[in-house]
């Protein structure tokens, strides 16, 4: 089936968010990665709105915390869990079989806890600084969309699934290079349109988005070398890494 069919966005929302969708969409994964950037735009828009309201009513820090919390709730903490599990698997010096076994366990080890806490602190700190600027809301929205674009990258042809990863196997090859490039162009165009009143902001924000994609790519290559492929946890970890890196660079240059 073609990944561009109408039900694709519903399939993506079913897995990547808490939104209720028809049962026929919830039972399929073919459209999850192809439409993940669209889901990212929606989630980013909601989070940006919450961040702005929190900033105006309380403080930039409160807005940042509320935005990160809303994202965690809307995604069921799925990507944060993936980040922690991936850190536990990749952090210590373990062989491939043991690393995958650790990642499949339900508990979170010390590497996972430390990575999760530091990543969330980094996201909140950078977002709080960004909310004091004109384009803080846009940086947040872009970071969430870029995160889902990075996750969609794992669906390209030739990307292997790690042994025992059912999700990795189900979404393998569901994203074409042309489709992924198309989403990158769409996100860049939206970024340019949003900053049309101040073109000096477009370059720094685009650079931040690129940094997020590069950070996720580094993690992907590390996971592929260590685990033999990707898993659902690795996809979530790539998303959170891309978000943090985008916000970090944006806070430094915007």
Automatic annotation (TrEMBL):
Catalytic activity field: alpha-ribazole 5'-phosphate + adenosylcob(III)inamide-GDP = adenosylcob(III)alamin 5'-phosphate + GMP + H(+); alpha-ribazole + adenosylcob(III)inamide-GDP = adenosylcob(III)alamin + GMP + H(+)
Keyword set, alphabetical order: Cell membrane, Cobalamin biosynthesis, Magnesium, Membrane, Transferase, Transmembrane, Transmembrane helix
InterPro entries in the cross-refs: CobS
Enzyme Commission number, as recorded: 2.7.8.26
GO biological process: cobalamin biosynthetic process
Subcellular location as annotated: Cell membrane
TM region positions: 35-53, 108-131, 168-193, 199-220
Stated family: Belongs to the CobS family.
Protein's recorded name: Adenosylcobinamide-GDP ribazoletransferase
Taxonomic lineage of the native organism: Bacteria, Bacillati, Actinomycetota, Actinomycetes, Geodermatophilales
């Amino acid at each position: 089936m073609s990944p561009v069919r109408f039900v694709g966005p519903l399939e993506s929302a079913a897995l990547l968010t808490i939104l209720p969708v028809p049962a026929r969409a919830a039972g399929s994964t073919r459209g999850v990665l192809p439409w993940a950037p669209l889901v990212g735009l929606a989630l980013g828009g909601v989070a940006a709105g919450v961040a702005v309201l929190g900033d105006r009513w309380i403080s930039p820090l409160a807005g940042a915390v509320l935005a990160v919390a809303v994202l965690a709730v809307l995604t069921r903490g799925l990507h944060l869990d993936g980040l922690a599990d991936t850190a536990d698997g990749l952090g210590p010096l373990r062989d491939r079989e043991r690393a995958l076994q650790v990642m499949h366990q339900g508990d979170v080890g010390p590497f996972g806890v430390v990575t999760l806490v530091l990543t969330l602190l980094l996201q909140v700190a950078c977002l709080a600084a960004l909310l004091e600027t004109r384009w803080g809301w846009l940086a947040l929205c872009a970071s969430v969309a870029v995160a889902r674009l990075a996750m969609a990258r794992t669906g390209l042809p030739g990307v292997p699934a790690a042994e025992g990863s059912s999700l990795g196997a189900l979404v393998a090859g569901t994203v074409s290079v042309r489709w992924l490039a198309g989403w990158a162009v769409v996100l860049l165009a939206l970024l340019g349109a949003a900053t049309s009143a101040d073109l000096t902001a477009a370059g720094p924000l685009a650079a931040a988005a690129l940094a997020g994609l590069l950070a996720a790519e580094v993690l992907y290559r590390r996971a592929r070398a260590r685990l033999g492929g990707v898993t659902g946890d690795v996809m979530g970890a790539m998303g959170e890494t891309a978000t943090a890196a985008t916000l970090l660079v944006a806070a430094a240059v915007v």
